[in-house]
Amino acid sequence: MNLEAQQKWYNKEKRDYFNMYGYRISVFEVLWKNQVIRFLFIFLALFYFYLFFQRVKTSLKSGGSMLDPFHIAKGRLYIHTIILFRKRIVPLAEIRQIDIDYVRGRRMNGDRYHLYFTRKDGKSFTFHFGKSKRNEELVKNLANVAKKCHIKIYYYY
């Protein structure tokens, strides 16, 4: 194959590659003209940015990994889970009881842990996260720390 034939082949491949994305870009332009869809895109982007920022801020305060669902340090429970509309830092002295519920996934959705905390003032909060080896270790560590702090702990498997 001579050089001129190689350049034609390369240019044809390059054109086909960009034409494939040109269709998607034109669809996005049509969707962007609709005000409702544009508002929805912007709202979802800002919402997810806010949730991500909250997770990063909490993980920096706790000194734990951002990928962990929670971290216990300095006598406090730091909750890193992404969707949680409450204070993400709870002193362990305020917690009266912890219910650990293991939920089996259906239709290949994955297994989950559901943690239900009851505070001493009667208020409660809950969050859930996926099951992994690292998260199993965190739940065991949570149980050990809860026993040291005289917090009742209940398992539901």
Structure write-up:
The chain folds into 2 domains: 3-33; 36-156, Roll (PH-domain like). The mean pLDDT is 83. It has a 4-stranded mixed beta sheet, covered by helices on one side. With 157 residues, the protein is α+β, with helices and mostly antiparallel strands. A hairpin with a 2-residue loop joins strand 1 and strand 2. It contains 3 helices and 7 strands; from the N terminus they run ααββββββαβ. It has helices at residues 3-33, 35-62, 133-148; strands spanning 70-73, 76-79, 89-91, 95-103, 112-119, 124-130, 152-156.
CATH topology of the largest domain: PH-domain like
Number of strands: 7
Beta content comes to 25-35%
SSE arrangement, N to C: HHEEEEEEHE
End-to-end gap: 67 Å
Structural class: alpha+beta
Uncertain stretches of 5 or more adjacent residues: none
Largest sheet, spatial ordering of strands: 6-5-4-7
Transmembrane segments: 36-53
Keywords: Membrane, Transmembrane, Transmembrane helix
Protein name: DUF304 domain-containing protein
Organism: Streptococcus fermentans
Outline the secondary-structure elements.
Layout: H1 3-33, H2 35-62, E1 70-73, E2 76-79, E3 89-91, E4 95-103, E5 112-119, E6 124-130, H3 133-148, E7 152-156
Parallel strand pairs: 4-7
Antiparallel strand pairs: 1-2, 2-3, 4-5, 5-6
Compact description:
With 157 residues, the chain is α+β, with helices and mostly antiparallel strands. The chain has three helices and seven strands; from the N terminus they run ααββββββαβ.
